[in-house]
Design brief:
Structural class: mainly alpha
Strand content: under 5%
Distance between the termini: 26 Å
Strand order of the largest sheet: 1-2
Number of helices: 3
Number of strands: 2
Shape: flat
Length: 84
């Protein structure tokens, strides 16, 4: 799993081009608070081709709402990518 800081570290220049945000080029590790979340459109432009989904957690983050649905959706997306 990539944290927002990992994404900013790896794709900083691309984020700057897509969203006009200034990349922090300091050599220190980025903190999560320095890395506001990107919208889904920007993420899909940055990240490698693949199957992605988002999900909501419930019960104080201990369960994923409609977990089976997300797993099936990812499996179908992965299968369609492999068939191309």
């Amino acid at each position: 799993t990539l944290s927002w800081a990992d994404i900013y570290q790896k794709y900083g220049n691309e984020i700057e081009a897509i969203e006009g945000r200034k990349n922090n080029d300091d050599e220190h590790d980025l903190l999560e608070e320095d890395c506001p979340p990107l919208d889904s459109s920007s993420l899909l432009q940055l990240l490698p081709r693949g199957a992605y989904t988002t999900c909501r957690t419930v019960c104080n983050g201990t369960q994923v709402y409609q977990f089976d649905y997300h797993v099936k959706r990812l499996a179908l997306s992965a299968r369609s990518i492999l068939e191309v």
